[in-house]
Amino acid sequence: MTTLSKNFYTRDDVVKISRALIGKVLVSTVGGIVTSAIITETEAYAGIRDRASHAYGDRRTARTEPMYAEGGTTYVYLCYGIHHLFNVVTGRAGAPNAVLVRAGAPLQGLDTMRERRGRSAPDSRLLSAPGSLAKALGITTALTGTSLIDGAIRIENHGFRVAPSKIVTGPRVGVDYAGADARLPYRFRVDPADVR
DNA sequence: CGAATGATATACT
DNA sequence: GTATATCATTCGA
Known about the structure:
Elements: E1 2-3, H1 6-9, H2 14-20, E2 25-30, E3 33-46, E4 73-79, E5 83-90, E6 97-108, H3 110-117, H4 130-136, E7 153-157, E8 168-170, E9 187-189
Antiparallel strand pairs: 1-7, 2-3, 2-7, 3-6, 3-9, 4-5, 5-6, 8-9
The chain binds a DNA duplex (13 and 13 nucleotides) through strand 4, strand 5 and helix 4.
């Protein structure tokens, strides 16, 4: 049960890191309450030449600034005016790479997650999509740019095992506008039942 | 299937 | 500075 160290995040290959995050544990401490989840789905966003990335074409703005930080920090932004989406920034400083955490399986703080998500969400869907996952874990844009090493959000290795053959690779969701890049196999997911 | 909902990027005046 | 189109989505009809 160790917190992932800086050198996990600062590696070059964001796609590899995206795959490696499957089975790791995302932990948030918000309002003095700890909630955590096993990561079951991620997507890689690969720098300034990835049309699907917010940083495509080196679009460095107030919003995307956290993506340009050194790996090991967060990038949280508001999508569709409603949903806060949580990303892990990777790579070296100046290279805007990030991994979107799309889904998870509840581990700790189940009651709090249920409260945050509201009555209509069944347990099986508590963390089944990126907006829902952030909501259940209490993650908002207020936490963008914060450290994953010693901040309110961290990622730990609890020793959960996922057979490589159980990790499904495919194109990313909701990026049709990205042309050919929309078909890149940058999405990774595993059935929660295949995490031991 | 489509409304909800607001920050943001971009293109104007 | 102001206008407007767009968006790494979700939920309910």
